[in-house]
């Protein structure tokens, strides 16, 4: 219960920061779209597209945090709605993939005949964007260490922060040299910067949704360690998965030797899981050898 309460209070702290980041992003998005369309700057439009995913992504992250907290007391949802955060992170990744793909495609098209882009409006807009993204970046940085959901929003803001720097460089080059290729080149650079980070985010979200064991846990070694406990003859049906960021769960069946005290075996197993593997929420079933055969009869 203490762990759940800590997660709830942490989520509560994130809500205010998400609202602030959402307000900043939505305000600048309107400005960037107008200037990007007016000047015809692909670098600025690509940054506006990233800002759109920021706004949508942060909105999804905010909705997920609120939803997870709201449904915590529903008895029929035994794991609450914590997975909403993971779904939001995956949605953010899909959005970022789509935007990066569009920007790369459009930039390649423009290399054949790059249009003339006025530098000064692009530079001024980039400076404003850089400031706003820096504030949003600082707002979300701490939460990104605790929540995959917040990390998705944080990575989008980070990509836009880099994007704003790129747009600023593009505008300065255009303003000082008139080189038309600066705009599509910077747009490609922004797209390539975003893709590997987006892949990492999607991979982490999918690992949770498919209920894979956390990467830090070697399940094979965990089974060996459980079997080596005094009084245990076999460990089977061992499962380790992540409910949401910072909430890892385990379950295991332990076959005990005749004459062993089940209560003592249970205490030793829970201590091993908590101290050696940082799995404090574990359901351990201690059973005699006769009961083990029933587990093997299952087809999954």
Automatic annotation (TrEMBL):
Keywords tagged on the record: Ion transport, Membrane, Transmembrane, Transmembrane helix, Transport
Alphabetical list of NCBIfam families matching this protein: CDF
GO molecular function (one): zinc ion transmembrane transporter activity
GO cellular component, one term: plasma membrane
Localisation per UniProt entry: Membrane
Matches recorded under InterPro entries: Cation_efflux (IPR002524), Cation_efflux_CTD (IPR027470), Cation_efflux_CTD_sf (IPR036837), Cation_efflux_TM (IPR058533), Cation_efflux_TMD_sf (IPR027469), CDF/SLC30A (IPR050681)
Residues annotated as domain Cation efflux protein transmembrane: 19-209
Recorded family membership: Belongs to the cation diffusion facilitator (CDF) transporter (TC 2.A.4) family. SLC30A subfamily.
Stored Pfam families: Cation_efflux, ZT_dimer
Cation efflux protein cytoplasmic domain location: 215-288
Record-given protein name: Cobalt-zinc-cadmium efflux system protein
Matching Gene3D superfamilies: Cation efflux protein transmembrane domain
TM region positions: 21-45, 51-69, 81-105, 117-140, 152-173, 185-202
Its membrane topology: Multi-pass membrane protein
Keyword Transcription (UniProt): no
Domain of life: Bacteria
């Amino acid at each position: 219960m203490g762990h759940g309460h800590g997660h709830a209070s942490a989520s509560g702290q994130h809500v205010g920061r998400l609202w602030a980041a959402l307000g900043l992003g939505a305000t600048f998005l309107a400005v960037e779209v107008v200037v990007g369309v007016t000047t015809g700057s692909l670098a600025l439009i690509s940054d506006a597209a990233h800002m759109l995913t920021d706004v949508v992504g942060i909105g999804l992250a905010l909705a997920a945090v609120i939803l997870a907290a709201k449904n915590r007391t529903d008895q029929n949802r035994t794991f609450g709605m914590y997975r909403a955060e993971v779904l939001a992170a995956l949605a953010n990744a899909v959005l970022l993939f789509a935007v990066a793909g569009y920007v790369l495609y459009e930039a390649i098209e423009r290399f054949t005949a790059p249009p003339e882009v006025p530098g000064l409006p692009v530079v001024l807009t980039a400076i404003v964007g850089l400031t706003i993204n820096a504030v949003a970046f600082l707002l979300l940085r701490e939460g990104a260490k605790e929540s995959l959901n917040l990390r998705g929003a944080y990575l989008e803001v980070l990509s836009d922060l880099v994007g704003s720097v790129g747009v600023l460089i593009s505008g300065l080059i255009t303003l000082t040299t008139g080189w038309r290729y600066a705009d599509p080149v910077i747009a490609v650079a922004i797209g390539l910067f975003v893709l590997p980070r987006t892949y990492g985010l999607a991979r982490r979200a999918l690992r949770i949704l498919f209920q894979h064991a956390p990467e830090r846990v070697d399940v094979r070694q965990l089974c060996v360690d459980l079997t080596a406990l005094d009084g245990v003859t076999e460990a089977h049906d061992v499962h380790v998965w992540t409910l949401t960021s910072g909430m890892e769960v385990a379950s295991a069946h332990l076959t005990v030797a005749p004459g062993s005290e089940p209560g003592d075996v249970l205490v030793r197993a829970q201590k091993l899981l908590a101290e050696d593997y940082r799995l404090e929420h574990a359901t351990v079933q201690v059973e005699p050898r006769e009961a083990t055969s029933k587990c093997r009869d299952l087809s999954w």
